[in-house]
Structures are given as C-alpha cells and as structure tokens.
Amino acid sequence: MRKIVLPGDLISNNPKAAGYGTYVEGEKVYAKILGLLDETENSVKVIPLKGKYVPSIGDTVIGIVKEVTANGWNLDINSPYQAFLPLTENPEAKPGKKSNEILDLGDAVIAKVVNIDPRMRVTLTMKDKICRAIRFGRIVAINPARIPRVIGKKGSMIKLLKSELDVQIVAGQNGLIWLNGDRRKISIAEEAIYLIEEEAHTEGLTDRVAEFIRRRKECLDQKGS
Amino acid sequence: MTEDILSEIKKDYVLSKLRDGERIDGRKFDEFRKLEIKTGIISKAEGSAYVKLGNTQVVVGVKMQPGEPFPDVPDRGVIIVNAELVPLASPTFEPGPPDENSIELARVIDRGIRESEAVDLSKLCIEVGKKVWLTFIDIHALDDDGNLLDASAIASICALMNTIVPASRFGLGEDFCLPVNDIPVSVTSLIIGNKFLVDPTRDEMSVGERTITITVDRNDNIVAIQKSGDYLLSESLLEEIMDTSIRVSKKIREEILRQCSKACQ
Amino acid sequence: MPRPERFIIDGKRLDGRAPDQLRPIKIEVDYLKRADGSCYLEMGKNRVVAAVYGPREAHPRHIQDPTKAVIRYRYNMASFSVEERKRPGPDRRSIEISKVSKEAFEAVIMKELFPRSAIDIFVEVLQADAGSRTACINAASVALVDAGIPMKGILTSVAVAKVDGVLVLDPMKEEDNYGEADMPIAFLMRGGKIDSIALLQMDGRMTREEIREAIKLAKKGAMEIYQMQREAIMKKFVQEGEE
C-alpha cells in the first residue's frame, strides 16, 4: 500500500521533483495535504484522500443550474466556486430562444471548463462531444478525490464498468457521475462506484470490483429479466 | 477605496527603506517615538491621563466605586479594563460593541497591570466577601497612528498613579491614594520577516498587522506576552525581541516617572 | 476550590504527574458527518469537538478577499462546560482566544489557493479543564487535515505554567488558577520536528531564562502530542484501506 503522508511531511530534497499536493521551501519538498505518496524517479506527488473540488481548465464537470441570466447560466459544480456557462457556449442556443427555454433552474449538464481567471471565476463550454444537457439517466455524487480511481489508470476502471454493465458513464472531475442505461444495471454500477469510493486506495480493487459486478449480475439473472 | 491604495503605496515605501536598514521616520529599530504625558485632565474621573506617542493620542479615565468581589478572591479589589476604539480615531474604526482588536488590547493591558501587581488589590477591600473597590480603567482612543496598545498602557498606568480612591463620597472614610507598586511597560514590535520595529506607526503597520507585545515590570520580569497576527515566529527572533523589549522598557519607565506627576506622594 | 498549600510534593504534582508529563489525550478523527473535516479530542478533562467547513463560498459577499480564502475561527464554550453555568455566546475571553487561534492557523493554511472563499473552523468546548484553548487548537489541526485543506504543516499546542517556582507542562486546573505564570504556545510541526511558533501568549511573572526553559519544555510536550495527532489520522485512513 502506498504511504500516507500528512501536511508538513518531508518527502524529497529535490525541489525539481515537486508535483501535485506538495510545496517547496528552502530546497526541500513537503506534502501540503493529507494523501498517498506517489514517488517516481524524478517526480514526487501526493494523491489527495479528501478535499473540495477546485476546477482546472480542461476538466469535465457535471453542473446544476442555480441561476438563469440573459446571457447564460450560473452552475453549482460542487465546488467552493460557481461556474458560468455563457449562452454562446451552448450548442442548443438559437436566436430568439430565451435562456430559460434552453436550460432552467435545476437542470443538469455535462460541460467542460474552458477558462479560469485569477479570481477563480470559472467559465464553461458545452462545445465538446462529451457535453450534453442531462435529460435522462442518473447522477451519482462521490468524494471528488476518488474520481481518478473511478476512472482508473488509462481509464481501466471506467472501461470495466462500461463493458461489464453495458451502461453509459461520464465521470465529472467534480465528483458527479452520469449513468445511463438499463435501470438495474445502473443500480449495480452505482453500488460499484460507492465500493470504489470506499476502497479507493487499496490494492487489487479492480479485481474486486469485477468480482462484485459478476456476482450482482448473477443475482439479476437468477431473478429473471 | 482610498485607504487601500494609500496602504499599498506606504507598504512599498516602508519595505524599500527597510532594505537600506532604515525606518521611514528615521528612527532606530528599537526607538520609541516622542512621548508626551498629561495627567489629571478629566476632573470627573478619579484618575486620568492623556498620552501622545508620536501622533497617536489616547485618553484613559479611571473610575472607582464599591462593588462585589469575585467569589474566589473575596478580599481583593477588582480591576476592569475596557478599550473603546471609537470611529473618530481612525477611518477604519466602526461604531458598535468592542471588536476583537479592542478586546485584545484591553485584555493585554489588564494582564500587564494585574500580573505585575501594579495595584495592590489587597488594600482595596472594604468588607471581606461583600464589598471591595472596583477600579474601572477605560481607554478611549482619539487618534490611531499606530501602537495604540503601548500608548494606552502608558496612559493606563499614569492614570492609576494619580488616582484618588473616592472613599468619602460613599461614606467609607477619607479619600486615599490608590496604592501603585509597579510600573509595567509594554513594548510592541512590528514583525517584518526576520526583523522587528519597536513602536510601529500606522504607515509601518501597512506592511501587515503582525506584532508581538512584551510587557515588563520594574524588575525586568516579563509579565505578559501577546503574539498578534498571522505569522510564524522563530525562537531566535523571540529571544532578540525579549532582550530589546526589556532594555527599551527601562527608558519608557524613566520617561513615565519624569512626566507622570503623582496625585499624592 | 481553595488554593493548595503546595503544588509539588516529592517531585510529583497534585495529580501525580511529573513536571514534564502530559495529561492523557484521546483523539478521534472524522467525528462529525456533516462537516468537511472534524475531530473529537480529550486532553485531561477537556472535551472538545472541532469542525471545519470549507473552502466554501464566503458569505456575505463583502467579506470575500479576491486574492485568498478568509479564515474564520470560533472558540466557544458550552454553558455546561464549566462549574458555574456560563451564559451562552461569546464573551471577551472567547473572542480573544478565537482571534489568536485564527491567526495561528492563518499563518499555516495556504489561503492563496482559494481566492474569494471561506474556511470556517468551529471548536466547541463541551467540558473545560485548564488548557482548553490548546486542546482546541490540537483538535482543529486534525480537523483541517481531515478536511483536505492544504497547509504548511500541522499545528500542535500545549501550555506551560509555573507553580512553586517550578515549570510544569500541560497545567491542570489548580495549577492554572493559582500558578505564578501561564504560557500557552502553538508550534508549526514540519519535517517531523518543531519549525516555528504560531501562537504565543503569557501572563504571570517570568524571567527571560524561565521563558526560554518553558519553551523547551513546551517543545517536548508538543512532540508527544504531534505523534498522537499523526497516529489518530493514520489510524483512520489505514483502517479504511484494510476493509
């Protein structure tokens, strides 16, 4: 198991190796958050175990409309920061159509972070093939720090879920995940996601998840379709 | 906001002078500003003092009245210190109940007076367990050009030094001088990196509200320490500051003795 | 409770401790469900709960700082926490403690990473027993780590008092009430050792040398408490992994 580090733990004497979750002071690299130490030959980073979602440009996020304005929508993206989706960035916008006719309070969308200013004002776009207004399916919320584990190395975990259960899954970096497909398969997917969240930093998780899905599918088959 | 812009400009000025080892008003790092003390200026108060430290001005009034002692010390008088950082003293002071800064100021000054035993509280008992003298020390800031704390502490001890206990007014015998046995002096320093400036002005404070106050009694004992502000302090800097504060406190005490006339000898 | 005649008899304090011994400490991480980070801590008879919320949107708008997070710290004593019922709400002592504690954390939390937001630290003293402010800082520190807040390191706090002319670590009630001096201090712990002082207050009468010695004694206590803070945090996360 990877080593757990706490803020202030000395993790390297090579400032050039400082990566995510670390800071440099006086030629030494320290951890700045609680997390798992990830050391490679020339980089050292800390994988967070907890923490709020702080947006980065390029992130895929799932947001919920909190405010409708004439030129766009303010979205809650499960972060200390709200995000703004301009009308011009929504492919469904057409001249003559009012913003609330396209997206109204409480609607959910999959979007991408396209800009962040120094005051952390976040701008989103839906002009990307992964983006869409969410009109069906389910949204699941987990600790954003566990999303990387849900996706897996080179997408291995999320591919497993998709293929084994034949469901659509889009994981937002902000901890929200959209699932679409057969109702009972989505249910298994949801449970599997909570399992991953709970055991994110343990070994052999992928195998255990595969096993879990297999068993649940068996139950389903036994009950009859 | 005008205050913020000026603040930024002043900050740069202070820092650039500091790099040359200087202060913007030419003082040495361990030098207090010019100190002016006037006592007995408020005749309705039992004791009072006005202090002008550089451009900082403060008035302290002492009022006394009989009251109940604290249950765990039934034979000693009670001291209550309150500070009003009233809006007229600074563009940044708001009207209303005391905020955390005025509470901190009052409590640090209270500590200095209490722990140095400057006032002999045992002589302020009227009837054990029932009645003692309450000494209200009220600090009223008039003009905040930095270091209201030290200015207020000086004014407080000077006010006490010329306080007459109004026993006759309450039919409790003859009036007598408040017994003052020590002169605690607080020395506040502004911390900038690994340097410190004693008795900072408002302009110098624009660099950051980071100070440490060391209160010293007449025997060079430290009776109060208060680190204030969001910074990390190294032990070695603390040692330097303690040494300097003890040294500087002696000069201030001399000044207080020189300028502060006692109401009674 | 009357003033004891002597505080140290045959090298032992009134509660049997040696001058450099801490009271028993118990730490539980992630104690509250709703908070982003939390900690329950016992130090002697102190029972405190710390909760951290944030970073979250700062309300009202005008308190927002466009360049960094605003840190708020509320030290509050429950009415039933002390012998004589305390009126609810902040009193002057609580306000001062909240101020200096907040400043200690402001010096170590990486506020610049979260402009316009607020990080709220709430600590409730359910039972008070000398040194409650130091217990609260220790609990708040753990709660902040639990919340995933980036910091330079962990804050560890302890007090040193002087009784019968002797410096004692982590004073108990009688030592705090009747002692000759009391010095609460908090250190930034980094690289496994004491880095610098984040909080320092003293009231009483001490010489320069005594203060130096008191800090030395405090450091010893802080190292022990720091180990316990670490263990409590590790225990929680290792447990998760073993399931």
UniProtKB/TrEMBL annotation, chain A:
> Which InterPro entries does the record cross-reference, listed alphabetically?
Exosome_RNA_bind1/RRP40/RRP4, KH_dom, KH_dom_type_1, KH_dom_type_1_sf, NA-bd_OB-fold, Rrp4, RRP4_N, S1_domain
Q: Where in the cell is it found?
A: Cytoplasm
Do the record's keywords include Membrane?
A: no
Q: What is this protein called?
A: Exosome complex component Rrp4
| Binding partners and assembly | Component of the archaeal exosome complex. Forms a trimer of Rrp4 and/or Csl4 subunits. The trimer associates with an hexameric ring-like arrangement composed of 3 Rrp41-Rrp42 heterodimers.
List keywords of the entry alphabetically: Cytoplasm, Exosome, RNA-binding
Domain named S1 motif is located at 58-127
* GO BP term (any one): CUT catabolic process
The family this protein is said to belong to:
Belongs to the RRP4 family.
What the entry lists under HAMAP family is as follows:
Exosome_Rrp4
> What is this protein for, i.e. what is its function?
Non-catalytic component of the exosome, which is a complex involved in RNA degradation. Increases the RNA binding and the efficiency of RNA degradation. Confers strong poly(A) specificity to the exosome.
The UniProt entry's GO CC annotations, sorted and at most eight, read: cytoplasm; exosome (RNase complex)
One MF annotation (Gene Ontology) recorded for this entry: poly(A) binding
TrEMBL record, chain B:
| Location of the protein in the cell | Cytoplasm
Q: Enumerate the SUPFAM superfamilies for this protein.
A: Ribonuclease PH domain 2-like (SSF55666), Ribosomal protein S5 domain 2-like (SSF54211)
Extent of the signal sequence: none
**Which is one GO molecular function term here?**
mRNA 3'-UTR AU-rich region binding
Q: Which Gene3D superfamilies match?
A: GHMP Kinase, N-terminal domain (3.30.230.70)
BP-aspect Gene Ontology terms: rRNA catabolic process
List, alphabetically, the InterPro entries matched.
ExoRNase_PH_dom1, ExoRNase_PH_dom2, ExoRNase_PH_dom2_sf, Exosome_comp_Rrp42_subfam, PNPase/RNase_PH_dom_sf, Ribosomal_Su5_D2-typ_SF, Rrp42_archaea
UniProt lists the family membership as follows: Belongs to the RNase PH family. Rrp42 subfamily.
- Binding partners and assembly: Component of the archaeal exosome complex. Forms a hexameric ring-like arrangement composed of 3 Rrp41-Rrp42 heterodimers. The hexameric ring associates with a trimer of Rrp4 and/or Csl4 subunits.
Q: What does this protein do?
A: Non-catalytic component of the exosome, which is a complex involved in RNA degradation. Contributes to the structuring of the Rrp41 active site.
Q: What is this protein called?
A: Exosome complex component Rrp42
Task: State the organism named in the record.
Answer: Archaeoglobus fulgidus
Phylogenetic classification of the source organism = Archaea, Methanobacteriati, Methanobacteriota, Archaeoglobi, Archaeoglobales
TrEMBL record, chain C:
Q: In the Enzyme Commission scheme, what number(s) does this protein have? A: 3.1.13.-
SUPFAM superfamilies per the record? Ribonuclease PH domain 2-like (SSF55666), Ribosomal protein S5 domain 2-like (SSF54211)
**Example GO biological process term?**
gene expression
Q: Which Pfam families match?
A: RNase_PH (PF01138), RNase_PH_C (PF03725)
HAMAP family for the chain:
Exosome_Rrp41
Name a single GO cellular component: cytoplasmic exosome (RNase complex)
Q: What is this protein called?
A: Exosome complex component Rrp41
Task: Please give the family membership noted in the entry.
Answer: Belongs to the RNase PH family. Rrp41 subfamily.
GO MF terms, alphabetically ordered: 3'-5'-RNA exonuclease activity; RNA binding
User: What's this protein's function?
Assistant: Catalytic component of the exosome, which is a complex involved in RNA degradation. Has 3'->5' exoribonuclease activity. Can also synthesize heteromeric RNA-tails.
> Which gene name does the record give?
rrp41
Q: Which domain of life is it from?
A: Archaea
